[in-house]
Amino acid sequence: MINYFKEILVGFWSLLAGMAVTIRYFTKPIVTVQYPREKIKMSPAYRGYPRLIIDPETQTHRCIACEMCARICPSQLITVEGIKFPGEKQKRATKYVHEHYYCSLCGLCTEVCPTSALEYSDEYRLAGYHREDAVLDHLVILQLRQTAAGLPVTAIPSAEEIAAAAAAEAAAKEAKAKAAAAAKKPQAGEEVKE
Amino acid sequence: MDVLTHSLGSEGVRMIVGLIGVIALVSVNALFLIWMERKVAAHMQLRPGPMEVGPHGAIQTVCDAVKLMGKELITPEEVDKPIYYLAPIVVFLPVLLTFLVIPFSQTMVIKDLNVGIILILAFSSLSVLAILMAGWSSKNKYSVFGAIRSVAQNIAYEIPLLITVMSVILMVGSFKLTDIVVAQSRYWFILVQPLAFILYIICATAETNRTPFDLPEAESELVAGFHTEYSGMRFALFFLAEYTNMFIVSAVATVLFLGGWHGPILPGAIWFLLKVYALIFLIMWFRWTFPRVRFDQLVTFAWKILIPLSFVNLLLTALALKIF
Fold first, then answer.
1. Rounded to 5 degrees, what angle do the CA atoms B296, B297, B301 make?
2. Against a cut of 0.80, is the pTM above it?
3. Residues spanned by the domain of B35
4. In Å, how far is B14's CA from the nearest CA of chain A?
């Protein structure tokens, strides 16, 4: 008989304890976010797709279009094109496309980059409607991020500019070759003389 | 209005106005309760719940209701047609009728019958019949299981419910709901009948087939129980009846234990609704706290604990009334 009442009281107490737990959670703040509109902050250890770093000094990317990343990529997903513009010492990327749909996020591209131009992004929302949605044009993404951060936007060189730069480069090369040839000729003549 | 009063009598006009008011209340209440349930569930799980349609998803359930109205009414081939068609109506009509006697305030009661509480208890037990009709006529084993469980459960829980209600009736000496509320003008009966209140809430949860006593419609075991084969508005009627039943049991608890319309400052009807929705919140709180009981536990609990306790409570009440 005592057990009977004890069971009732203990059971009732356990029910109250359970209700205390749920009401405590009821008053706690919400932890979920409204998916397409809100974004959560990812931990620094998160490794999303590789993207171009915005250099804090120049406020643009550091890619010199050496194509190391394109070569080391195990699935060959990266296409880099670059050209040396007149008055610049190094080549600059004019196209950086990453076909992310086959990317295994191995990170070799970020490791191999000689100028450390790549980093892992914190982007985790990768759903798209087409396969083409997963083709990432990193120069465009860079522009978007620069706009969002209020930095000057790095322009993507147009086809004409690239052609002009290529022509200028070719002309410079030719001039250099001519100069070299011109410098070489007298020497050769001297040898002939002897 | 004059013509109406002339041909129907003031009582008739009162009935018609009341009926329209009740139908409006029932639909708005169901829409609100479904929204509230989803919100309560969500917040207990640290989610926001419906947020898209309207401010804080307030008209989400309206959209759901419109969607349900647009759905096809599927009638499976081998169902027992007359009973199958009748069940949703049978489940809904008694629910509507019980509003006849519920006193929202001193004057806001459609017809203050002197058998008020008995009428409510009688009509709300009719919903078991509807559940049995629905389950039996559906020609579906899950539906039949749900219906059988519902009957066993309701028989078990009706008894302690009636006995706990009786202990309050003993104190008042009237079945009239307004009399019961008026008798609580000095103190609420929950203060003198705490055990009866707890027993009533447990039995009411079981009566309305809510978790932890939702065996008749246990999703994880019986698909949806007795309304598995119903679709569209027929399903909506079952749903509507369930949520209205919740309102009714909470309204009865308010009348019996929480002093009905009594309360300071605010008008009586507002106080009444506040208390009712607080009780409904309590029942929803149960749902998101307690797991479903096993069937043997359910029946054991009713026969071995609830019924003896309610008898003890009745005896003590009678004794106390005799002494004081």
1. 120
2. no
3. 1-70
4. 42
